[in-house]
Amino acid sequence: MTIADFYLTDIWNRTLDLIINNNEVDEFVINTFYRDSKLFSLNEAKAIILAPDFLHYTTMNTNILLINKCLSSIINHEIESEIILEKDYVAKINPTLEIKNTVQNHFLKNKLNPNYTFGNFIVGRSNAHSQVASLACANNPGSLYNPLFIYGNSGLGKTHLLNAIGNFVQTNYPNKKIGLISGLDFVDCVFKSIKNGQIDDFKREMYDLDLLLVDDIQFIAGKEKTHEIFFSVFNELVNNRKQICLTSDRIPSEIKGLEDRIISRFNSGLNVNIESPEYETSVNILKSKLANQTELRKNVDDDVLSFIATNFSQDVRALEGALNRLLFYSINFNSGDNITLKLAMDAFKGQVQENKNELTVNNIKKVVCDYYGLTKQQLNSKTRTKNIATARHIAMYLSRKYLDLPYLKIGDEFGKRDHSTVMNACEKVEKQIKQNSLYQKAIIEIENLIKN
Ligand code: ADP
Ligand code: MG
Which ligand minimizes its atom distance to the CA of 280? Predict the structure, then answer.
């Protein structure tokens, strides 16, 4: 089952559950005459449902209004459904479609990367929100979340998801015009087209898009003229229900030099965060990358994957890099069929922290997380929920106390916060220790755990 199928099946099942809850149609009828049908496609205006036989076809058609109502409520916008007999669908829905969205653009020269798809994007807790939101936008361009704003540190899959949205729309909505551009190229295009007297042509090309994908939008910050052009493109597209998807290394309000009116537009859609992959996701990503290595005829031991996932999971690019280094090493320095942990240790000599007893920010984070029942992702996240923020402040304070690291470095380790945030956190903890005996007790317990 492809991810798109999975998505449609999920929507269909939830629609049927809602119909059952509505009590207008008997549950038995639903399970007998609806369940084996299939939500085949979904776009802004229409859903197509395939019925396996005539009985399904007629039973569902008698309740088409209820189906429309429940389906609309599940996907959050008005939709009409058409029920088609499965045997008729090939002729009706699969006419040979002319691919029109590959027209040569004058300004938008970036091509979608065909290797970045939803199919090869591994999903885990760290990126599930971003993946589901991207998939929802790709399925219903312009009608659900506009703009979709994906943010997170470098190497976590933002460009991958942006291209996956583009590739999905290209395949499933062949008539939609797609534009992919990086923030830097956007600035460059505005600059050059103003210089050449072509700014209206540039705007027209943008206005004509059905889907605009801007990667690393933070680079338009501080560029006044670009802001003006981007603002008008943004309004034109969103007002006409054309989809915009953006990526950035931070949330809109933290992009310094971005005009308030643009920040508020970015906040009017959906902002989703993508975080460092947790251990299981890292292992799954490594397995999937290995499976795609067709030339490699070696077995990689599980403890090798575990070793890489433990030491290089700060971002997916680092994971890929480590895997490539290992494969390179094994091809050149190992004639055996197995890649063992011993070989991996040789390949990464000097690259990973060898003295396991040495105290690191990671150890401190782990102790604090265990103490408060949190995950490292929560600690690094932007969440300001009280218990998470308290734990984060304590971990920062202890990193300062035991490792004597600069505030800037600690900020980097905790989701790229700036040095004043860390300084404030440390001061807050010191103050709490003096004022609150329960708090003081907690710190002593955590410190004992760290020392042990
Ligand atoms: P970003 O744009 O956030 O800096 P990229 O999208 O360029 O990161 O991702 C870096 C590399 O990691 C790419 O090769 C991408 O395919 C890969 N990658 C990131 N996340 C995943 C994932 N969840 N599953 C598979 N590959 C991933
Ligand atoms: Mg990127």
Answer: 1
